[in-house]
UniProtKB/TrEMBL annotation:
Cofactor(s) this protein cannot do without: FAD
Protein name: FAD-binding oxidoreductase
Location of the FAD-binding PCMH-type domain: 42-220
Keyword terms, alphabetized: FAD, Flavoprotein, Oxidoreductase
Source domain of life: Bacteria
Pfam families (UniProt xref): FAD-oxidase_C, FAD_binding_4
Amino acid sequence: MEYKVFEIEDYRNIVKLLGDSDRVLYGEEISEDYSRDELGSVRVMPKVVVKAISTEEVSNIMRYAYENNIPVTPRGAGTGLVGAAVPIYGGIVMDVSGMNKILELDEENLTLTVEPGVLLMELSKYVEQFDLFYPPDPGEKTATIGGNISTNAGGMRAVKYGVTRDYVRGLEVVLPNGEIMNIGGKVVKNSSGYDLKDLIVGSEGTLVVITKAILKLIPLPKKAISLLIPFNSLENAIETVPKIIKSKSAPTAVEFMQRAAIEAAEEFLKKPFPDNTSDAYLLLTFDGNSKEEIERAYEGVANICLDSGALDVFISDTEERQEAIWSARGAFLEAIKALTTEMDEVDVVVPRNKVAEFVMFTHTLEEKLNVRIKSFGHAGDGNLHIYILRDDLSEDMWKKKLSEAMEIMYDKANKLNGQVSGEHGIGYAKKRYLFNALSEEMIAIMRGIKLAFDPKNILNPGKIAQ
C-alpha cells in the first residue's frame, strides 16, 4: 500500500475538521511519548497527533484519512508492551484518551457505558460506590478501558471471573472509512450472525476505532481474604496449582512468585513483605459475601497446600495485611525494571498443568544463555510473564541474546500447546512469533478479516498478522 506523504495542507485540513488547533499537534509540538508505548524499543514519530473528544471527530478524521490514504494509529494511555500504539508508517496518531466520560450506569441491566479513555482504576472505583463490580483486573491500573478491550486484557482475577472479552456487551466503533457502527448492546444473549463484537475485542486497533463500550457488571463481593503460602521450591508450589483448581473451591486469583521478585519489590517500595524466608510462594485470593463462605473455600485449599509440601499458610484477613502483599505483587514489573538497564517480555500462556515445566525451563535457559531472566505470573490460568534483562550487555549482544531467548521460549510454549500472548497482544514486536506459531491458513484468514474491515489498510498498519 502506497500511503500519501503527509503535507502541511493535510495538517490545515485536519485543524479545520476539528475547529480547534490546540488539539492537533504537528512537528515540534509532538511529544516523543507519541513515538512509543511502554515497550520503548520500537519508536516512530507520527506526522500529526489528533486529540479527539467525540465520536463525530473520530469519524471525520477517519473519513479524511481514508479518502487521502493516510495511516492512522489509535492510542489510549500508551501503556502497552508490544508496540501496538506505535505509528509504524507515521501518519496520524488518534489519541482518544480525552474521551474519558462515564456515560451511563444502568443498574437494572447491570451495565456501564463508557468512553474509551476512562482509566481502569477510575471505572472500578466508580462502580464500587454502587456495590457493583467490574472484575477484569490487569496489572496496569492507569491503562484505558479502550486499550484493555483492544488487547483483551486479563489480569489476576481471570482464573475465576474471566477476561475483558467476557465483560464487553456492546461497542460503538468507527470504521476506517469513517462510518459509525454499533455492535451488540445491553442484551445478555446474542446469536445474531457472526460475532463482530468479540472479533473486535483483542484486535489492537487494526479493525476499528472504539468510541464507546457497554460493559457488564456484577454485584460486588462483600469480603475478600488472601492466603500467602510459602514452599521450599517453585516447582513444588506450581505443581500444587492443578490440585487447587480441581478442588472446586474457585479462588479469585492464583499467583506464583519467587524470592528474587519479592526482594526487588521490597527494595522498590521501601517496605517489607510479610514473609521473605522461602524461595517460592503461591498467593491466593478468595472472595464472597460472608467470612464463613470464604473460610469454607480456603480451608480445603490450605489443607491441599500443606499436604503438598507447603511450609505454612499465612491468612491475610485485614486490609493492612492484604495491602502489604498485593502492593508488592503489583510492583513486580516496575521493580524488575529498576533492576536493569533495559528489558523485554515474553507473555506466553500454556495449559495450567504445563506451568511448572515452562518456568523450570526458563531457569535452565538463564544458565545456558548467561542472561538474567525473571518471572512471575498467573499460575491459575497459565499466563506467564517472563522478563529478559539486558544489564550491561552491548547493543549487539543484547539484540542477539534477546532474539535467541525469545525464539527458544516461544518455541517451547508452542510445543506445550500454548499461545504467543495471554493478554498483552501481538502488536508490532511479537509478529514473527505469531507467524511461527500459526498455520499459513490461519494467518491468511486473519489478513482476510483485516481486509474486510479496512480495504485500504490505513488503520494501525503493520501490526498483528501483517
